[in-house]
Amino acid sequence: MFRELARYSRxxxxxxxxxxxxxxxxxxxxxxxxxERRESSFIAIIxxxxxxxxxPYSRMFRIAGWTLRDVETSVARCGVEHTxxxxxxxxxxxxxxxxxxxxxxxxxxxxxxxxxxxxLNESGRGPIVNTSSGSSSGRSFRTExxxxxxxxxxAACQLMVGELDLERRPGVQVAPILPGYGLxxxxxxxxxxxxxxxxxxxxxxxxxxxxxxxATRCIAAQLRLFGAKVPYPMYLDQNDxxxxxxxxxxxxxxxxxxxxxxxxxxxxxxxxxxxxxxLDVSGTIAIVAGEALTDVKRHVIESAGISVYPTYGASxxxxxxxxxxxMNRGNCVHIFRHGVAxxxxxxxxxxxxxxxxxxxYATSLLPFxxxxxxxxxxxDTGVIEEATCDCVFTRLGFNLQVRDIASISKVTAQxxxxxxxxxxxxxEERMPAxxxxxxxxxxxxxxxxxxxxxxxxxxxxxxSRNSDEEILGYFLxxxxxxxxxxxxxxxxVHSRGVRVRWAAPLLSATGKFRAVRLLGPxxxxxxxxxxxxxxxxxx
Length: 539
Prior knowledge:
CATH topology of the domain at 411-534: GMP Synthetase, Chain A, domain 3
Helix content: 25-40%
Oligomer: single chain
Largest sheet: 7 strands, antiparallel
Shape: globular
Number of strands: 24
Strand order of the largest sheet: 11-12-13-17-16-15-14
Distance between the termini: 48 Å
Mean pLDDT: 86
Radius of gyration: 23 Å
Low-confidence stretches: 134-138, 526-539
CATH class of the domain at 411-534: Alpha Beta
């Protein structure tokens, strides 16, 4: 606890130091200068990495048959993206488990030693702590970023605020306390003159998070003392997003066009609360992050009269993309090419084969990025294509966009594999349509049981009056139709490894909700204070 408090104390002092610096007067010029140095920055990163013959990437390059000269020639002829695609196809890449040190790196039969520290860029590390929930797994992974990195993020956000006309608009953020991103979001909003008058915190009111609450309040007090308009967090009761919807309604009645920022699921729950309570939040602009903006969540948000724009980033990589005013459909952002390059790899979703998808791999291009990452798997799928809109990002050279972003996670309990994206559709669309509720009311948890990995269908209390047997039977019948689902459903039932739990969804350490939560082998869930029932003969 004391180590954590010391770490966040340093972060608070860094935030105060950043407050004393002026906003970038020319964010377009700053980003354009990075774009002009993009190719040389990429080659410099490769050169520095390959200068250490023992570095894992050096080993990968040697096995793939690539040299620094090959990279320079390819970049000159084809550009950064085509070069990275060729390297990816040749075996120069990192899977998520390899990056985190959970899986051995093997290329063409040769083992490559590595640790999570292998990828650190010492000149890019700093006092800003960014903790990831680890995609669907929920296992946290810490990244330490520098003030230079924060300044770059701020410049990009300045452009988005201007593009979407957010400046001087009042609003609210629904975001987690530490170790989540809420403090950073509040600081950025204050700096960029977006008026977050309220901060509703999620996932932080439990006793287990006591010292995070203390650290969050202390840093917020520091920032307020030095002039930042950062609100103290107000903790939402479990399953009650009405306060945020009511606050937006008050802003609406005052004639303001309000802004709401938060995880996709959190904003969706605020919109659902507005719909359920007949509250007028129309005209609100939502900036969402952290999760895929699925069609069904977009529908819920827009049904409340809220315009929604997704952002895209990863704690390992940082900011990957932001939306322009034209990106008001689907899940699409401009790729921020000055700091990152994306490539795709066509691969199956399951260990035993499955529907092929385009898995996204990212490369850090900024010299002050916290890690040197070349073709690192993000854990998402998406389609990369040319952006044809007329906006500030396209004019800066961000003429590539990534759309249809979705998680690539897979459920593999008891040896059976199903793509999580297909299960999400069942949980977010078919279950609410059949039994009531909305996206976020049904969650599938893969966790370690007494003697086997179990699947727990978690249902928010009060959303349905149907029996456990009826709900679970329908879920298994829908799963049965998916690729790999027929064998999975039969195996789960045969082993009595699937059950219903009536409880609020399980959130990550950073307060993030995912419809499919893969806790992984050896990780169990608390068994107190909820009603659960195992069903053994459904099909």
